[in-house]
Design brief:
Layout: E1 11-13, E2 20-24, E3 30-31, E4 35-37, E5 44-46, E6 50-51, H1 58-75, H2 78-88, H3 95-128, H4 131-140
Parallel strand pairs: 3-6
Antiparallel strand pairs: 1-2, 4-5
Helix pairs in contact: 1-3, 2-3
The structure holds zinc ion.
Zinc ion (ZN) binds next to loops.
Length: 148
C-alpha cells in the first residue's frame, strides 16, 4: 500500500504524500474544479489545465467548445456531401433535400457533445454559486477576473 508504486507518469499524484489521485494529468483544457482534495492528506492539489467556466477567458471558452463540438458538426456534413456527390451533381437531386441534410446533419451530430458541454458549464456555475467554494478558490490562487 505504501511505498512508490511503478511510476505511472500519466497519473496525477499528490505532491505532499504521492497518493495516486486517479486521473491522468491531461494537458487539454477542461472545465471543472481547478483543484481537488487529496483523500489521504487533505492537501489541495492543482489540476493542470482545468478551471471553472467563469474563470476562463473568451478565447479559452471558444476553444473548449470548439474542440468538443466541431468534429461532430463536420462529421454531420458527410451525408450532405454524399448526397451532393452521388445525386445532386448529376442533376437528379432536389435542392430542399440537400439543404435539409446540410442543416440537420451537423445539428443532430453536435447535439450530444453540446449537451455535455452545457452540463459541465451548469455544474461549474453551481460550484461557483457557493461562497465557501469561491473562498477556497481564492485561497488556492484562482480568482474570478474582474471580481469586486
Ligand atoms: Zn496527499
Amino acid at each position: 500500500m505504501l511505498g512508490r508504486e511503478m511510476s505511472a507518469s500519466a497519473a496525477l499524484r499528490c505532491p505532499s504524500c504521492a497518493q495516486d489521485l486517479g486521473r491522468p494529468a491531461r494537458p487539454r483544457l477542461n472545465v471543472g474544479s481547478p483543484f481537488q482534495e487529496c483523500p489521504k492528506c487533505r492537501s489541495h492539489v492543482s489540476r493542470p489545465a482545468t478551471n471553472e467556466w467563469a474563470l476562463l477567458g473568451a478565447g479559452q471558452k471558444v476553444y473548449w467548445l470548439g474542440v468538443r463540438i466541431l468534429p461532430f458538426a463536420l462529421i454531420g456534413l458527410v451525408p450532405a456531401l454524399v448526397y451532393w456527390q452521388t445525386t445532386f451533381r448529376g442533376g437528379d437531386g432536389q435542392l430542399p433535400v440537400l439543404v435539409a441534410l446540410l442543416a440537420a446533419g451537423p445539428v443532430l451530430l453536435a447535439y450530444l457533445p453540446l449537451a455535455n458541454a452545457l452540463h459541465s458549464i451548469r455544474r461549474s456555475r453551481a460550484r461557483m454559486a457557493d461562497p465557501m467554494y469561491r473562498a477556497r478558490l481564492i485561497a488556492f490562487g484562482r480568482q474570478a477576473p474582474g471580481r469586486p
